[in-house]
Amino acid sequence: MISVNENALRIVEEICKAPKDYGVLVEETDEGARIIDAGIKSKGGLQAGKAITEICLGGLGVVNLTYMNYGDILLPTISVYTDWPVIATLGSQFAGWHIKVNGYSAIASGPARALALKPKSIYKEISYKDQAEAAVIVLEASKIPPSEVIRYISSKCNVDVNALTIIVVPTSSLAGFVQVSGRIVETGIHRLFMLGMKPEAFISAYGFAPIMPVHPDTDEAMGRMNDALLYGGVTSYFVAYDNDEKLQDLVKNAVSSSSKVYGKPFVEIFRDADFDFYKIDPNIFAPASLTVNNVISGKVFTAGAVNVDMLRRSTKGF
Hints:
Number of domains: 1
Oligomer: single chain
Radius of gyration: 19 Å
Largest sheet: 6 strands, mixed
Structural class: alpha+beta
Strand content: 15-25%
CATH class: Alpha Beta
CATH superfamily: Methenyltetrahydromethanopterin Cyclohydrolase, Chain A, domain 2
Distance between the termini: 47 Å
CATH architecture: 2-Layer Sandwich
CATH topology: Methenyltetrahydromethanopterin Cyclohydrolase, Chain A, domain 2
């Protein structure tokens, strides 16, 4: 059985051998948990963001950084591919665990979810559970978690505190921007999954998305991050599906342009929803462009397109 935590731990060990190379700070708590600061007191740059993306994928994806033209806009870009698309994304990378403990709040993702089974419904559907004795978790947060939160995470993962690695990456950090754009493949898989595509249909996946200009304000940063995916993200999936007509319909509805709120910067969408994610049309959380190749029939279906005007609006011009 594949262990996303054991895979991720190998990447963590490489970071800890040379933290300065990654622009991170590595500390150990009194109880022995390892904390990697990727943007709070550290600078947390591109290399950290790339490594965090690989960790979130449970070591089952290949990640590269490059530059790409989006119309007349040139932006740094992250590309991701995986031959284990379901376990890497739904089973690890998906930000499916919202931690709230005594005033501390963080969005949790990464391999530790496969130990805590957060949320259980997804792990039941994909028939996966990790059994590692060590856990690696990524927290999108602006503060290092206190000891009670660390103990809470270790207990939910059923590992000793000294077997826990916590990577903390702030929303408005460069590493944060990189790792969110690195969720492009997961964004499309989760959307197709929510529309009814069975996990076993996925064979391999590829995607890329721009890394938007960093903004110090958390809301503006979150807006740009989401715009990178829903207006600039491009995905491609190889699947085995027995009904082309249904598959074509799934693809048509799996892109952000199928949403009724499409066409506005995400920060405006968020404000219109009173800063409540649950009030936002879920159809917007999807890639700009999605292509599926059905290896059974040989047919290819594509929907959506990169929206250069919205990328420009997202940053109020380039």
